[in-house]
């Protein structure tokens, strides 16, 4: 898909939840498959984005998602960008869902704004406008879909994208 084009959301199959302690476990045919999504409401404030980033990292670690420290950093940065956009452009409230989809970790943010997300090409002198370009560069995939109250943006992060190595041997 060309850069700047948003990918359509493909709905996931519905699962039933069963309480398995502090983190819910999803079951299909009474066999554990994947952890149930972590869903919560966020109200804007001084520490809101940092608190959400920490929660996503904690849940991801508790689920045992096999992400390198760099890939977990990508998850946190992508989440920060789409959460900040939602809080800035949609009235200071949003709903965050972290979900393990098997090969990827999906972070989705629902807000009440009808304003569509756009990848901007900001000038070097602007302080904002780079968030979705960062998400596009780091995420395996990302996109948005309309919902009954506004929209839902999501980013999937899994295996890190190939990046040039900083070391002469080609190893990190």
Automatic annotation (TrEMBL):
Keywords for the protein's UniProt record, in alphabetical order: ATP-binding, Kinase, Nucleotide-binding, Serine/threonine-protein kinase, Transferase
Region (Disordered) location: 1-20, 147-172
Domain Histidine kinase/HSP90-like ATPase residue range list: 51-139
Superkingdom of this protein's organism: Bacteria
InterPro entries: Anti-sigma-factor_SerPK (IPR050267), HATPase_C_sf (IPR036890), HATPase_dom (IPR003594)
Record flagged with keyword Transferase: yes
Gene3D superfamilies with a match to the protein in the record: Histidine kinase-like ATPase, C-terminal domain
GO molecular function: ATP binding
Compositionally biased spans, kind Basic and acidic residues: 148-159
Record carries keyword ATP-binding: yes
Record protein name field: ATP-binding protein
The organism's taxonomic lineage, starting at the top: Bacteria, Bacillati, Actinomycetota, Actinomycetes, Kitasatosporales
């Amino acid at each position: 898909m060309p850069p700047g084009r948003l990918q359509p959301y493909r709905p996931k199959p519905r699962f039933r939840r069963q309480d398995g302690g502090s983190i819910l476990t999803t079951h299909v045919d009474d066999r554990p498959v994947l952890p149930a999504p972590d869903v919560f409401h966020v109200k804007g404030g001084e520490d809101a984005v940092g608190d959400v980033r920490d929660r996503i990292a904690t849940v991801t670690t508790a689920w045992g998602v096999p992400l390198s420290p760099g890939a977990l950093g990508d998850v946190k940065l992508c989440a920060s960008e789409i959460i900040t956009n939602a809080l800035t452009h949609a009235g200071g409230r949003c709903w965050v869902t972290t979900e393990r989809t098997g090969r990827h970790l999906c972070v989705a943010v629902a807000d009440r704004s009808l304003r569509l997300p756009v990848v901007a090409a900001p000038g070097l002198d602007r302080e904002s406008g780079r968030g979705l370009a960062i998400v596009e560069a780091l995420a395996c995939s990302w996109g948005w879909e309309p919902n009954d109250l506004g929209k839902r943006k999501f980013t999937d992060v899994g295996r890190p994208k190939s990046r040039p190595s900083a070391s002469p041997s080609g190893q990190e």
